[in-house]
Amino acid sequence: ITIVYIYNVTSLLFFFFQAEDGIRDAQESRGLGDVYKRQTSDLTLELSTNCKATTGLDVNMHLTCTNMEKEKVDKGLDGAIAGEIRNICALRGDKASGDEKWEAAEGGFECALDLVKYIREKHGDHFGISVAGYPEGHPDNIKPVADLGRDLSEAEQGRVVHTAEGDRVCSDENMEVELTYLKEKVDAGGELIITQLFYDVEVFLTFVKNCRERGIIVPILPGIMPIQAYGGFTRMTGFCSTRVPEDVRNAMESMKGDSDEEKEAVKAYGIKLASEICQRILDEKVVPGLHFYTLNLEKSTMAILRNLGLIAPEEGEVGANENEDTTKGTRVN
Q: Exposed, middle or buried, 250 (CB in 10 Å: 0-12/13-18/19+)?
């Protein structure tokens, strides 16, 4: 679930359920709208084409390898062309619900690189293709520090994830493999990198620097997920193995109650924190815009954009589901 802001262009992405408010608000926006597949390709295509037809937005349709035979991918791409959708976010995707590990569908694709290559092979430069990047390392590669058998390097210390079960980190060796793979995705046709969520700005800035040093020169959009609720925050950071700075963790622990006051305090803190993260990144002048995981809750995102001076104070009316915890069952990969 995302919203993208590129200079004076906004774009919104919502899950295919509860999308009515989002589509309405998207009509008042301008730019690139992301639609996340969540392993239901027909519904994704329907929402994407309807969004394009009713709002005129440039839709960025997410396409994953999970449970997708080549025929389903072809159907999605042909449907995108018929619906005048020109942008695809090519992902491996999460493991299918109920599976212990990720496995390719029979006759499908093994990874996002294969998907990017196939889209370019089949359709040339018709589609703009975006790919995923992981500033802290892909969750599959963030492993217990104890398994390293050595002290952490300075770079590893900068991205180590502290959990109740012990510290975890993507090793320098695995990070090098990931950056090499990311360059392969870009060289194969990826034109834009959208990153996993993060709350430590230094980790993101280091990731951008490492990409540029390896010749990865395409635009990189930082993945920003405004904190909406204590439960959702702990679920998402746990699922994604996200590094949470100590000051952020302490602030969240002080507001983890169920009272209305504490819930409102969490939302206010989420807006303040994300605004500060975004401003710092924009001040560094290393990105062309921002990518927000809105979780179908646009109120916080609109408030952040207003704080940054990127939309006028009166812009961004919100839907009716702002107090719902839409992170339940959510996967971001």
A: exposed
Strands, DSSP E only, in 104-235?
A: 128-133, 143-144, 168-169, 192-197, 220-224
> Which residues on neighbouring strands pair with residue 61, listed in sequence order?
35, 88
Question: φ and ψ at 88, to 5 degrees?
Answer: -130, 135
**Cα–Cα distance between 298 and 300 in angstroms, integer?**
6
Q: Please state the pTM of the whole predicted model.
A: 0.85
Which amino acid is it at 63? Answer: L
Q: Structure tokens of 10? A: 């906004």
Tell the residue number behind the tokens 């620097």, with chain if given. Answer: 209
Distance CA 23, CA 262 (A): 30
In whole angstroms, give the CA distance from residue 312 to residue 182: 36
* pLDDT per residue as tens digits for the range 33-77: 555 444 456 777 777 777 777 777 777 888 887 666 788 888 889
Tokens 């359920």 label which residue?
17
> Is 60 exceeded by the pLDDT of residue 31?
no
Q: Number of helices (H) and strands (E), helices first, in the chain?
A: 11, 11
Show the beta-strand stretches assigned E in 210-320: 220-224, 290-292
Question: Positive or negative, the Cα torsion across 91, 94, 97, 101?
Answer: positive
The answer to whether residue 219 scores a pLDDT higher than 90 is yes
Other CB atoms within 10 A of residue 153 CB: 12
Read off the tokens for 113.
């690189």
**Mean pLDDT on 272-294:** 94
Split at pLDDT 50, 70, 90, the class of 235 is very high
